[in-house]
């Protein structure tokens, strides 16, 4: 299988490879330190046309606040408001406009907002899809 090296939190190098037979991959067995490394919420949003949530985890609802602006409400609150939000989006294949996303307000333990906009003119836009992942909450 594939093997390689990665840096551990203390800066030392370690090897990785294919999981050994019988390895424990159950997320419920993580230590409290390991839980901070697991995605605590995610969503895929259909932005163009009729807005909708295509799939999600730990997201109770998504509100389109305005064109290109989305508020994500968590089913289970994050433990802290200092979590990391990773967001991206993509355009339709026949649309030459570039898109980008960003976090728009100070996140709370119960919600966060993201904004999608055109990289051509920086106007708010509803892209084809918006993807958001939350870690560390």
Keywords, separated by commas or semicolons:
single chain, 137 residues, mainly beta, 4-stranded antiparallel beta sheet, 10 strands, 46% strand, globular
Number of strands: 10
How many separate helices? Answer: 1
Mean pLDDT across all amino acids: 78
Distance between the termini: 33 Å
* Fraction in beta strands: over 45%
| Widest sheet, order of strands | 4-3-10-7
Architecture blueprint of SSEs:
Elements: E1 4-7, E2 13-16, H1 32-35, E3 39-46, E4 52-57, E5 59-66, E6 69-74, E7 84-90, E8 99-103, E9 111-118, E10 129-135
Antiparallel strand pairs: 1-2, 3-4, 3-10, 5-6, 6-9, 7-10, 8-9
Description:
The chain is an all-beta fold. Helix content is 3%, strand content 46%. The protein is built from 1 helix and 10 strands. The protein has one helix spanning 32-35; strands at residues 4-7, 13-16, 39-46, 52-57, 59-66, 69-74, 84-90, 99-103, 111-118, 129-135. The strands form 3 sheets. A 4-stranded antiparallel beta sheet has the order 4-3-10-7, with no helix packed on it. A 4-stranded antiparallel beta sheet has the order 5-6-9-8, with no helix packed on it. Strands 1-2 form a two-stranded antiparallel ribbon. Strand 8 (99-103) and strand 9 (111-118) form a beta hairpin. The chain starts with a strand and ends with a strand. The model has no long low-confidence stretch (mean pLDDT 78).
